[in-house]
Structures are given as C-alpha cells and as structure tokens.
Design a protein that fits this description.
264 residues, alpha/beta, Rossmann fold, 7-stranded parallel β-sheet, 8 helices, 42% helix, globular, Sc_DH/Rdtase_CS, oxidoreductase, NADP, NAD(P)-bd_dom_sf, Meso-butanediol dehydrogenase/(S,S)-butanediol dehydrogenase/diacetyl reductase
Length: 264
Amino acid sequence: MAATPLRRIALITGAAQGIGRAIALRLAKDGLNVAVNDMPSKRQELQKVVAEIEHSGPGGQQAMVAVADISSENDVQVMTASVIEQLGGIDVMVANAGYLYAAELVDSTTEEWDKIMAINLRGTMLSYKYAAMQMIQQGRGGRIIGASSSAGKQGCNNASAYAASKFGVRGLTQCAAIELAKYNITVNAYAPGAINTPMVMHPQDAERGLAPGTTMLELTGMLERTPPPADPGVIASLVSYLVKPEAYFITGQTINVNGGTVFD
C-alpha cells in the first residue's frame, strides 16, 4: 500500500470559473493540494485561480494548472499523468466540467447532441476512469465526485440533450460506486439547481444557443418556481464534506442542492 502524502491531492475539472473555481478554492482552504483543469483557452483564468490559492490559502498548498479537453481520452490521460508527476497522486477527483446548450428537441441537431454527450457524459466517464485507476494503484482509497443537475433529476423545457447527459451522470455514478467500493473509493454527484454562475445566469454567447440577456432559468421554465440563485459556495461546501474521512459511508448518491425545487 502506498504511503499517504502529507496533503491529499484533488483534481477539479472545469475550474476556471463558477462552481469548479469555488470547489478548488474551498478544497485548498481545507488543506488539499489542488490541480485545476479547463480548456486551453481558459489557461489565464486557471492561473488566476492558482495564484489565489497560493496567496490566500492557509499556507503550504501546492496548486497547478492542468489544461485539457476532458472529452478527449488522450487529453485526460495526459492531464492525469501530469498531476501525478507534479503533485504525487490523486486522492480526490471532482468531474465538474460541463456544457450547456438550450433547444427544443425538434430543433436540436445531432452535432449539438454529440457535443453535450462528449463533454458532460464521456468527459465525466473519462475523468472517473483515470482517477479511479490511479487511486486503485495508490491503494489508499479516494473520493470521486461528478456534476449532475436538477435537470438530471427532472426533465425541463429546451434541455433534452443536457438533461439526458445529466441523467447519465447519475447512472454512471451509481455503477462506479458499486464497482469501486472494494477499493475504499466512494463515488457521488451533486445536482445543483439555480446557482449564480456564468453558464446559468449569463449564457449569452452564441455557442450556447441563447439570445443575449436570456438566462437558462427562463428557457427551461424554471424561473417562476426557483428561489434566488445560490452562491457556488453551497456546492463547494457539499464537496468539502464528501471528501472528508467521515463521509466514508456515503456513496452512489446524487445529492440535490436546489432550494427545494426538485425532490427525490
């Protein structure tokens, strides 16, 4: 069995902004060494996150940038290897990266469907897989956490592909939890509702298919039944608990964080 390092090591995908950034900062505050991932175009934002960790953490943390397209298996392999080489292993994987495109089913294209599945579902699978392989090799257990959504618990307007991908994360999480339990690895997911992030509240760029000034809440019909959006820190706090040793008995769960808009 591999020796446990002085600090556990976390890898967070989609960490240049929003929920991923909040998780990275919280885990660093909790004393973990942190690798932050996003697309190569987000390198500058990732470097700012690393600088914030190094200047505002409790002290002694290591942090690094690990750019990769998580829908690419080769990229995920290279990313994982770089984190292992620079930080010494992986104890926590937070597969947070995601992509949002809003359209009615009859207006959806196969290209957009495939892109959402590649990032949200295949990317999560690859993140789980290569982190799990390293955790098994290390022999000291681990924590794997994925990003589902309220749309992965209950369908909504204009989000058939997105919802299908997030329902898929739930199934993937349950299967991985069963398979990895014998290695002392827990696997869970969070299912956010309205969180004040650029993807949900300001998705006006053309690639997400939304008109300028339109929020995802308006398009999905959730605006009237949704409380004011929460800060990304509510998700970071949940992740902080799930990676703690005392959370060993929680696995296979996709936990709602939605202000009561969707119940299991």
